[in-house]
């Protein structure tokens, strides 16, 4: 019997053998135990006589809480925008060939990542203790163009924006820099061979390709920003946590108001997560077209247009 016939017979016998599926007993056991533990905790929380769920329902959509939710959303979005814009410039400066700009960017990132956000918020809120007035003047002269009282200028809202936004810029800068460095150097060389300037190369070639790497961690930073915005309570900014604290300091329903705040934070985080998933899918579809398909599409489009 030839080797080919023997191998063919073995293959047929192997194909006829029953396939035993792995049962993953340990995995299913852990899943059942986890669900049982979660169910037990939820039931204990739901039937706890100490908790007054009517208070939770009363304040869940109260005007005070909704105002806190609105302030939380506003400060989160604005601080994240500041972080992304400033982080983009810091990332570009970080990979710059200019050693002075590169060093300044590195120092900024090192400095703000080294100081806790809570300390930064308290510092900006108490800036008036160091500088009674903030002024804009012509250097080396006594000519003052603009001047303002620091305590009037640095409101709780401005202090929160400065503390959260400038701190976020340091982290976003490293995320964006990592995305830029993930793009092949050949892309830059190809753009240079076409006569594109470094600015156009960054804008039209590098950044669009880096988005796939940048979007997921930046979206995660937005969710983190949403939660650390609760630190604004230390500077009396009336976001969600501060509003809940003000209410339970009067009616003494601490846990109920914390549950109200938690429900809103979970809801907002869920919206951000769904938005992130949608954005990643759309970005993935736009970048997933293989080069051959893109070339074919371009060729067919030009042919239909009568260019070739």
From TrEMBL:
An MF annotation (GO) of this entry: transmembrane transporter activity
Keywords, sorted A to Z: Amino-acid transport, Cell membrane, Membrane, Transmembrane, Transmembrane helix, Transport
InterPro entries reported for this sequence: AA_ABC_transptr_permease_3TM, ArtM/GltK/GlnP/TcyL/YhdX-like, MetI-like, MetI-like_sf
One matching Pfam family: BPD_transp_1
Domain (ABC transmembrane type-1): residue spans on this chain: 69-276
Entry keyword Cell membrane: yes
Stored CDD domains: TM_PBP2 (cd06261)
Location(s), subcellular: Cell membrane
Residues annotated as transmembrane: 28-51, 71-93, 105-127, 257-275
Gene Ontology biological-process annotations: amino acid transport
GO cellular component: ATP-binding cassette (ABC) transporter complex
Membrane topology: Multi-pass membrane protein
Keyword Transmembrane in record: yes
PANTHER family documented for this protein: L-CYSTINE TRANSPORT SYSTEM PERMEASE PROTEIN TCYL, MEMBRANE COMPONENT OF AMINO ACID ABC TRANSPORTER
The name this protein goes by in its record: Unannotated protein
């Amino acid at each position: 019997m030839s080797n080919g016939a023997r191998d063919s017979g073995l293959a047929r016998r192997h194909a006829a053998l029953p396939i035993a599926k792995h049962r993953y007993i340990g995995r299913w056991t852990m899943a059942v135990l986890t669900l049982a533990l979660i169910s037990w905790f939820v039931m204990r929380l739901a039937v706890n006589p100490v908790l007054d769920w009517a208070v939770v329902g009363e304040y869940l959509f109260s005007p005070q809480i909704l105002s806190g939710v609105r302030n939380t959303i506003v400060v989160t979005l604005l601080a994240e925008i500041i972080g992304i814009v400033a982080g983009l410039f810091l990332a570009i400066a970080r990979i710059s060939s200019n050693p002075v700009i590169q060093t300044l960017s590195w120092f900024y990132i090192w400095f703000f990542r080294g100081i806790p956000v809570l300390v930064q918020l308290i510092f900006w809120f108490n800036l008036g203790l160091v500088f009674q007035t903030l002024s804009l003047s012509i250097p080396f002269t006594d000519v003052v163009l603009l001047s303002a009282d620091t305590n009037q200028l640095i409101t709780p809202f401005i202090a929160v924006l400065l503390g959260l936004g400038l701190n976020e810029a340091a982290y976003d800068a490293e995320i964006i820099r990592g995305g830029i460095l993930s793009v092949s150097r050949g892309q830059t060389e190809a753009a240079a061979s076409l006569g594109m300037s470094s600015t156009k190369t960054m804008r039209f070639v590098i950044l669009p390709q880096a988005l796939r790497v940048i979007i997921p961690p930046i979206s995660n930073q937005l969710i983190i920003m949403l939660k650390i915005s609760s630190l604004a309570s230390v500077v009396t900014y009336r976001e969600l946590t501060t509003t809940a604290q003000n209410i339970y300091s009067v009616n003494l329903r601490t846990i109920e108001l914390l549950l109200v705040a938690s429900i809103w934070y979970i809801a907002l985080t869920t919206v951000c997560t769904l938005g992130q998933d949608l954005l990643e899918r759309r970005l993935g579809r736009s970048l997933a077209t293989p080069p051959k398909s893109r070339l074919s599409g371009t060729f067919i489009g030009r042919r239909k247009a009568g260019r070739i």
